[in-house]
Amino acid sequence: MRVRATVRPLLRDATDFKIPPIKVELDVNINSYPSETSLPRLWIRSSLSAIESTGGGIHPKFYDAIRNSSHKGNNPIETVLWHFVHRYLRRNADFEKVKRLRFQVGDEVLANVGNWEHGTVVAIWDEGFPYRIHLHDIGQDVHAPCDMDDVIKAPPKMPSNLNNSLDDDDDDSWPEEAKISQASWMEDMRNWKNAYEFSKNSPEKELFDKTFQSNKWINPKVNKWLCDGCCNTPDFVQEISPNIFSFQLFTTDFCNAIISEYERCETLASQTKQLRIVRPNSMNNYGAIMKNIGFQSLIDIMQDEILAPIAAALFPIVGAELTEQHCFLVRYAPGEDLGLDMHVDESDITFNVCLGKEFTGAGLQFCGMLGSPDHRHQSLRYKHSVGQCVVHLGAQRHGADDIVTGERINLISWNRNKVWRRSSGYMGPMYQLDYKREAGPPDLVCLSKTHDVDWETYCGPREGGRSFPWCPPDFARHVSDDMPTKEEI
Question: Could you list the residue ranges that cross the membrane (predicted)?
Fold first, then answer.
C-alpha cells in the first residue's frame, strides 16, 4: 500500500521567501503494519538536490536512527513523517546568515576540486554561488557550491573569519547520513530563493495560485473527461503511431502566459547576477527548468490532476502512477539550439506540448523502442502546433529536426514511475538484460551522433559536440555482408 503526503520543513530561522511544500510517498507493508520493526519506506516526490541520483530514496541509516529515537508517533506512518520533517530536513535555514561568508574577495583559500588547490576568492555570490575562486596552478575559475570546510577552507595558519554554524542540530545523536546534507540543503535554498525572486512580481499571478485554472487553460474535452472521473477511454486522443498519442491539451491563453513569464525571467536574469536560469538538461542550452523560475506548485498540480490520469489511461502499466517528474521549457531558434540528436528520455512517460511561437521546420522524428528490433527504424514524423501535446514512452527513440525560421518553445514533462523502474520490463532494455538484435540496417534519420557506436560507418566522422557511443551493444547490432559503406551512402 502507498500513502501520499505533503509536508513543509520546520525552519529554525525566518526567511524572506516561502519554501514550497515537499511531496512524499510512503510504501507500507500491510502484512506487518503497524509494527515499528517494519517501518514504511519514504520516497521524496518533489525535486531535492539530495535525492536526484537516488530515485527519491533516503539513506537506510535514516530508518535505523528512527528505531533508536525516543520519539514515537501514533503509528509508524506518523513516526516516519515526524522524523523526516524534524530530523532529515532540519537544517539552518537563515539565508541571511549564510550570506555572511567566511572569506572575502582577495582572500587566499584552498578549494576542493577532487584534490585541494590553492586559489584566490575573486567574487562572492556570483551566479548564485557563494564564491568564485581563481585557481593558481590551473589558471581557471571555479565556483564553490557552499561555504563549508569540505569545499573551501583557509590555508594552514590562516584562521577563518567566522565559525560555520550551519551544522548544528538539536539532536546530537542523529547521524549525518540520516539527514539532508548541508551542501544539498543550501543548493535547495538557493533554488527556492531564486524561484521566489523570479515569481514575486510576476504580472501572471494566476500561474502561481495553488489551483490550476482548468476552465481557462486546458482543452474543454480534456477538462470534461477529468471532471467525469476519467472512467472512459479518452476520446480526445489520437494514436498517431503505436504507443505515440497526440491531442490538444492547452489553450492559447495558457501557452502565451507561460511564454510571457519565461521571457520576463530571461530578462531579469540578464539584468542581475543574483538570479540565474537553470537550463533543462545536458542536451539543451536554451530554456529553463520550471521549478527554478517559480512554477513548482503549477507543475505539481498539473502532474497529479491532469497528466497522471491521462498517463494511466494511455499506458496502464508504465503509467499506472507517476511518482516523480522533471518539467522544463526548451527553446529552438536560428543561431541558438537548432535541433536535437536522436535519444531516449530519462523518463518513463513524456508529455511534450508546443507553446509557440511561429516557426518552420523543427519537426519531431520518432523511431522504435529501446532494445527492440526496430529501435533505429523510423516510425513517424510529427509536426508541432500550438497547444498540441504528443505523449510517448521515454524509451521511444526520437529527435528534433533543425528549425529553419522563427522560434519554437515547448513545455516538456518527464514523468517517472518508481514501481515500473523496479520491474524487468524497465530493467531489461535499460541494463541490456533483454535487448533484441536489430532487424535490419538502421534508417539514417534514426542514427545518433552522440550515442551510436556505428555512426561513422554510416555517416562519416563525428564532427563537433560531445559523444558517448554505446548503442547498440555488440550482441544486438545488425550484421550484414551487404552493410553499406560511407561512399555508397
Answer: none
Instruction: With a cut of 80, say whether residue 489 has pLDDT above it.
Output: no
> How does residue 190 score in pLDDT terms, banded at 50, 70 and 90?
confident
Tell me the residue type at 367. C
* Cβ-contact 218, 285 below 8 angstroms: no
373, three cell numbers: 528490433
Q: Which three cell numbers stand for residue 78?
A: 506518523
Q: What's 316-362 look like in SS3?
A: CCCCCCCCEEEEEEEEECCCCCCCEEEECCCCCEEEEEEEECCEEEC
Global confidence as pTM: 0.80
Distances (CA, A) of 400 to 284, 287, 407: 11, 15, 14
**Domain residue ranges in the chain:** 2-94, 101-153, 201-430
pLDDT digits (tens, 9 = 90+) for 201-247: 899 999 988 788 888 999 999 999 999 999 888 999 999 999 999 99
- CA–CA separation, 10 vs 14, rounded Å? 10
Q: Which CATH superfamily is domain 201-430 in?
A: q2cbj1_9rhob like domain (2.60.120.620)
Confidence band for 93, pLDDT divided at 50, 70 and 90: very low
My answer on whether omega of the bond before 472 falls inside 30° of 0, hence cis, is yes
Kindly indicate whether the domain formed by 101-153 is annotated with CATH number 2.30.30.
Answer: yes
* Dist CA 476 CA 373 (whole Å): 9
Sheet of strand 129-135: strand arrangement: 141-144, 129-135, 116-126, 108-112, 152-153
